[in-house]
Design brief:
CATH architecture of the domain at 72-237: Beta Barrel
Helix content: under 10%
Strand content: 35-45%
CATH topology of the domain at 72-237: Lipocalin
CATH class of the domain at 72-237: Mainly Beta
Low-confidence stretches: 1-11
Radius of gyration: 37 Å
Largest sheet: 6 strands, antiparallel
Structural class: mainly beta
Shape: flat
């Protein structure tokens, strides 16, 4: 061979040429990629343009949430009580106006009428349901059975499941009412003696809905005669809650009178039917008034008086205090942001509730007075 040395090896009588050994690193071979497999691409590339968008979204939604004020929350007058999962719960209708932040503005109703259920013992929120999206909406809890709650509203009657607050039926969707339903709260009342809701239809027909059902049936002649006059706009009567210097209770009257020594403030006294007066403790209240429902003292069923007053002679901040009529001791005091109250309701267990702006003051038979908040929501507008 030309240019190559060939070694020969003798095999028998035949000589076979052998190539010289090659020294060095053998060439590297890599397996080829399977046919049709695309090459790997970095995930960072497509996401880089999204970073400014994500930062803008955080600033837009998060910033608007941080700088926005809390929505206006106000308790409605028709609270009630129910048993949810074996525990007593307070049903509070309230209005919530104005979203907080751009996310709520885009995905939540600006005006809401809602109903919240809170455990009276622990204050735990059981559920919170939106009833309507009206600018103005009156809601009154008529009654609650073992399964359903019944709420009279400006839009008609709403039946709710007590387990989770879901709507069972409302307005024209209530079987037996249909298109003859009336969109006004005065057309619905609760017949406590017979445990049923009584309704007036647009055709003048009186119907009844038994508790824990969502079906209206025509009333018998006796029921129609008894309730027809009460189911009208002129017969609708609201029991107002206000503050006065005197109020009635089972033992006579309770009064706020000027201090005997001429100093500023008032003290509590009880007046018996014969006119005899007895001092109720020695606590002095500034710019005070007794909370009453109609003409009766709120909380009198548990031998308590609710007094709204200034914190001090020179401190105009308002407070609500519970005073024992038996001992005269101030058992509890909570701050309030106003002196106007919603209707007073009392449960069979003797718990008294009264709405004060964005909280409900709950007076227990043992004298405990707690402020139960409602209407709060998280970033997304979900009740919390």
């Amino acid at each position: 061979m030309i240019g190559r040395t060939v070694r020969r090896r003798t095999l028998g009588t035949m000589k076979i040429p052998q190539p010289d050994p090659v020294y060095g690193t053998p060439p590297q071979y890599y397996p080829a990629m399977p046919y049709g497999m695309p090459p790997r691409r970095s995930w960072r590339g497509p996401l880089i343009p999204l970073i400014p968008l994500a930062l803008f979204a955080c600033l837009f939604f998060g910033g608007s949430y941080l700088v926005a004020s809390e929505p206006d929350v106000e308790a409605e007058g028709g609270a009630g009580f129910a048993v949810v999962d074996g525990r007593e719960a307070l049903l509070v209708p309230y209005t919530r106006h104005g979203p907080r932040g751009m996310f709520q503005l885009m995905f939540q109703d600006m005006f809401q009428v809602r109903l919240a259920a809170r455990d009276t013992g622990t204050g735990e929120l059981r559920w919170d349901t939106q009833l309507s999206d009206g600018i103005v909406g009156n809601a009154d809890v008529l009654a609650a059975g073992a399964r359903y709650a019944y709420v009279a509203m400006d839009s008609g009657l709403v039946v709710l499941d007590l387990a989770d607050g879901a709507k069972v039926a409302e307005g024209a969707g209530i079987e037996g009412l249909g298109s003859s339903y009336i969109a006004a709260p005065w057309a619905y009342r609760f017949d406590a003696d017979n445990r049923r809701v009584v309704t007036m239809g647009g055709d003048g027909r009186v119907s009844t809905i038994a508790l824990d059902t969502a079906t209206a049936t025509p009333a018998d002649p006796a029921t129609t005669a008894a309730w027809a006059g009460q189911l009208s706009e002129s017969a609708a009567r609201e029991v107002r809650t206000s503050t006065r210097p005197q109020a009635e209770y089972a033992g006579g009257q309770v009064e706020l009178v000027a201090r005997g020594d001429g100093g500023p403030g008032h003290t509590l006294v009880k007046r018996a039917p014969d006119g005899d007066r007895t001092a109720v403790g020695d606590a002095v209240f500034q710019q005070a008034g007794l909370v009453i429902s109609g003409t009766a003292l709120a909380g009198a069923g548990s031998e308590q008086a609710l007094v709204v007053h200034n914190r001090g002679v020179n401190d105009p901040a308002r407070q609500l205090s519970a005073v024992s009529l038996a001992t005269g001791k101030v058992t509890a005091t909570i701050p309030v942001d106003r002196s106007s109250f919603t209707a007073v309701v009392t449960s069979p267990q003797g718990v008294t509730a009264i709405g004060v702006g964005p909280v409900v003051a709950v007076l227990h038979p043992d004298g405990r007075l707690t402020a139960v908040p409602f209407g709060s929501a998280d970033f997304f507008g979900n009740p919390s």
